[in-house]
Amino acid sequence: MYKFLGLVCLLIAAVVQADTSDWLPQHSSDWLPRRPEAQAFPRVLRSVVVNCGSGERVQPAIDANAGPVEIIVTGICVENVLIRDKDVKLRGGGKPSQSGIRSADATMPALTIRGGGIDSLDNLSFSNSAGLGVSIQGASATLTNCLFENNGGSGLQVKAGAVVLATTLTFNANIGASINANDGQIFCTGCDVSGNNFAVLAIRGAVVSLLDTMVTGRRGILAGDSGTLVDVDCVNGGTTHPCGVQVTSLAAFAGGGGLASLFGVGDFTGRIGAVDGGTVSLFGSRQIAGAQPGQGPPTNSAEFFGRIEVGANFDINPPTQSRLLSTDVTHFGRALVTDDTVLNGTIQCSSAGDAWLDPTIIALPGSAVTGCDHSKLP
Length: 378
Hints:
Blueprint: H1 2-21, E1 46-51, H2 58-64, E2 69-78, E3 81-84, E4 88-92, E5 99-102, E6 111-114, E7 118-122, E8 134-137, E9 140-144, E10 147-149, E11 156-159, E12 163-167, E13 170-172, E14 179-182, E15 185-189, E16 192-195, E17 200-203, E18 207-211, E19 214-217, E20 221-223, E21 229-233, E22 244-255, E23 259-275, E24 279-287, E25 300-303, E26 307-311, E27 323-330, E28 334-337, E29 342-350, E30 354-357, E31 362-363, E32 368-370
């Protein structure tokens, strides 16, 4: 009997400890996704030049040459290209805006890469397509200095276990999300992402890391379900490229158990939102008013078991503070605010929503906490 009671007590203690540790802020970048090493492209067997302006096409060059092959593209080819289970390097012969592939078919990407090949895209444009620009499915690919602009769908799709390492990509004015990740991974370093749709829309366990990347336009990042991780990381990219989030609507949103994080982005604009078990984390990220004219400062939301976690970035010395504007916490939503975070607004809890604020919080004049069972201003 006593052994049974002891076991029950241990189980209760374990549950309580797990519940508490689940709310501890994560003060380092150990949990951030790590960019893998790029796979070296095999020694090129042959180089082929495709002159789109003279009526030549990329697909026949791929079909006619066993990999590894380098195909140099000059001009813009209007076609739908498929690379499947072959090592292919596509390289632009001029500026990215002057060399590339465009699709006139809204149902077909300009370029599709599938299978087990090692592929490389360099200095190319995948722009002005009727639908999707590039779809990479289950392959390993390296993208450098490519342009994705004015596509009728997303600029770049990464899915089905694909791993993409990208540097200095530019996304602008795509109708769909600039980067659409579905059960794939992409690490984009020194990139520029702008447009009216999401910079990143990720689902089904996708991992997307925007390192030293500037996100502007209307919407930032979205992590859609359990196991999905999206971040803007201005600390670990290792470059001098401008990095931050300057948007007029959602800066970061997480749902269904996904995690969206702004890590060391400094001053950022746009609101944050978490729903259905999703978590949005701010570490060394200072939210400032920057909504569309006439709308006033944004109001964040954590609802239906969504969570917002805010703390300092301890990966640099001295650590950098975060700042949080007004936040509504409802329907079992949760907010955790720690580490000298500046509160500039009201945290309002309702419908079983709750918030925890540690004593280090710096509340600016006019700030308040209302309706929260476990918090009050220091």
